[in-house]
C-alpha cells in the first residue's frame, strides 16, 4: 500500500509539473532609446511595450502546412527583419546627424564667443577685407557697430 501511495504521489507531482509547464505566460517586448529590443515579464514604465503570449515548456509546433506556406512564412519573417534593420539604421543615421549638427553649433558658438570677448575687450584692431583683398581697418564707430553685430549674432544663435 505504501508503495502504491508513493507511485500515486509521484504521478500527481509529474502531472502538476507538466501542467505548469504548459501554462502560458505574459511577456512584454519593447525597444529602448538606443534601439535595443528587450523582453520581460513586467511592462516598462518609460517605454511603450507590446504584449506577447508565449507558452512555457513546449517546443514550437511543427508546421503541418505545405513547404510553400513555410517558405512564405520565412520570407515574411525575413522581410520584417529587413524592415527592422532599415528602421534601426535610419534611427542611427538621424542620431549621428543630430550629433554632428550639435558639434557644429557648439564650434560656431565657441568661435562667436571668442570674437565677442575679443571685441568687447578691444583687443586687436578690427579690419575687413576690401574688394582688392586688402585690409581696411575700421574706425571707432565701425568697431562699435561690429561689436554689437557680433554680440547680437552670439545671443541669437547661442542663447
Helices and strands in order, then pairings?
Layout: H1 2-21, E1 24-31, E2 37-40, E3 49-55, H2 67-121, E4 127-129, E5 135-137, H3 140-158
Antiparallel strand pairs: 1-2, 1-3, 4-5
Helix pairs in contact: 2-3
Describe the overall structure:
This protein has 159 residues and is α+β, with helices and mostly antiparallel strands. The protein is 59% helix and 16% strand. It contains 3 helices and 5 strands; from the N terminus they run H-E-E-E-H-E-E-H. The chain has helices at residues 2-21, 67-121, 140-158; strands at residues 24-31, 37-40, 49-55, 127-129, 135-137. The strands form 2 sheets. It has a 3-stranded antiparallel β-sheet, with no helix packed on it. Strand 4 (127-129) and strand 5 (135-137) form a beta hairpin. The longest helix is centred in the middle third of the chain and has 55 residues, at 67-121. It is elongated. The mean pLDDT is 78.
Amino acid at each position: 500500500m505504501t508503495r502504491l501511495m508513493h507511485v500515486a504521489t509521484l504521478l500527481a507531482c509529474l502531472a502538476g509539473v507538466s501542467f505548469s509547464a504548459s501554462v502560458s505566460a505574459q511577456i512584454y517586448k519593447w525597444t529602448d532609446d538606443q534601439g535595443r529590443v528587450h523582453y520581460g515579464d513586467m511592462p516598462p514604465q518609460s517605454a511603450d511595450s507590446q504584449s506577447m503570449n508565449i507558452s512555457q515548456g513546449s517546443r514550437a509546433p511543427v508546421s503541418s502546412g505545405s513547404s510553400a506556406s513555410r517558405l512564405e512564412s520565412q520570407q515574411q519573417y525575413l522581410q520584417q527583419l529587413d524592415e527592422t534593420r532599415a528602421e534601426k539604421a535610419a534611427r542611427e543615421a538621424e542620431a549621428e546627424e543630430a550629433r554632428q549638427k550639435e558639434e557644429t553649433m557648439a564650434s560656431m558658438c565657441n568661435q562667436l564667443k571668442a570674437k565677442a570677448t575679443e571685441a568687447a575687450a578691444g583687443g586687436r584692431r578690427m579690419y575687413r577685407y576690401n574688394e582688392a583683398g586688402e585690409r581696411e581697418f575700421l574706425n571707432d564707430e565701425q568697431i562699435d557697430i561690429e561689436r554689437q553685430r557680433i554680440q547680437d549674432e552670439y545671443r541669437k544663435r547661442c542663447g
